[in-house]
Amino acid sequence: MKELEEKIKEYGTVLPGNVLKVDAFLNHQVDPQLMLHIGQKFAKLFANEGITKIWTVESSGIAPAVMTGLEMNLPVIFARKHKSLTLNQNMYTADVYSYTKKTTNRISISKKYVDADDKILMIDDFLANGQAVEGLLEIADQAGVQVAGAGIVIEKSFQPGAGELKERGIRVESLARIQSLSDNKVEFVKD
Prior knowledge:
The chain is of the alpha/beta class. It has helices spanning 2-11, 32-45, 62-72, 131-143, 161-167; strands spanning 13-15, 19-21, 53-57, 76-79, 91-98, 103-110, 119-127, 146-156, 172-180, 187-188. Helix 2 packs across helix 3 (62-72).
């Protein structure tokens, strides 16, 4: 997605450890127009899949997931990372390791909002090692729901996440695919 790549070039910052900081438009300050276009793109890519719900992990996946849900006229469920006093029973859970934060979080989705005949689309801001998507897949397995695929805003193609998901038969659609973050420079995969 050209517009997204331009935003990354203009506002993205490469940090040590192959970290790409995009807090100017995605995961701190949010560019609503860009998120709308991202939602439209995912809606188009997954239009004929019979999807019933959009799933993501809080918090950076929420904006693109909500815009995708808006475009597809579908509810969005975000897996919570922190325990809630109001959501404490009848939960599907999975442990997810965060590459950038170097912590493990237990994510959870209430069984109340998951139906046995659901077909879900997972949306996430980044795909590097695939831990967030793996956590959602674990919850999908627990719930017995179908998975249409994963819509990823930014994929770090030089890390194993996308390849491992594709090997498992998971459809992965990434809007910006990064080949390298070497020398503090973002290089995109050339299609």
